[in-house]
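A reminder from the course coordinator: this example appears on the midterm review sheet, so study it carefully.

Given structure:
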């Protein structure tokens, strides 16, 4: 993977977290492939439509998101796929329960025929409290 492609993917991650913070869910959804699989901390998967419905439901109130670190971006030799691992700090209310979470995400990106990178798989860890030690990556 070229340094340019790595920077593009890092910028996408930054944009994704910024747009989540701004609650711009239509733009967030545009960054995902139509067939994305999103795995929640419970292990239960969501489709793109299900995730969008969850974010805009009365069950979820987002209150802020911040990118803490991008740990790794590694691409295929062909240059059309890569994975990334990053950590965020998010505040939200889910079904009446306040959450103030540090979470790790793993995302697989694929470059389409239009040369645009899209998220095709995303998995979120269980959150930890901001007062707990941050995850450490080599």
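Designed residues:
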């Amino acid at each position: 993977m070229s340094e340019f492609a790595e920077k593009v993917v890092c910028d996408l991650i930054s944009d994704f977290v910024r747009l989540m913070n701004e609650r711009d869910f239509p733009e967030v959804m545009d960054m995902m492939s139509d067939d994305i699989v999103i795995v929640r901390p419970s292990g239960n998967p969501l489709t793109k439509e299900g995730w969008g419905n969850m974010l805009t439901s009365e069950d979820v109130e987002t209150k802020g998101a911040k990118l803490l670190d991008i740990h790794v971006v590694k691409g295929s030799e062909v240059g059309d796929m890569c994975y990334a691992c990053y950590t965020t700090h998010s505040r939200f209310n889910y079904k009446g329960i306040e959450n103030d979470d540090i979470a790790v995400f793993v995302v697989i990106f694929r470059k389409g025929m239009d040369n645009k990178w899209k998220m095709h798989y995303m998995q979120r860890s269980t959150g930890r409290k901001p007062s707990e030690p941050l995850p450490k990556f080599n």
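The helical segments are 3-21, 25-30, 48-55. The radius of gyration is 15 Å.
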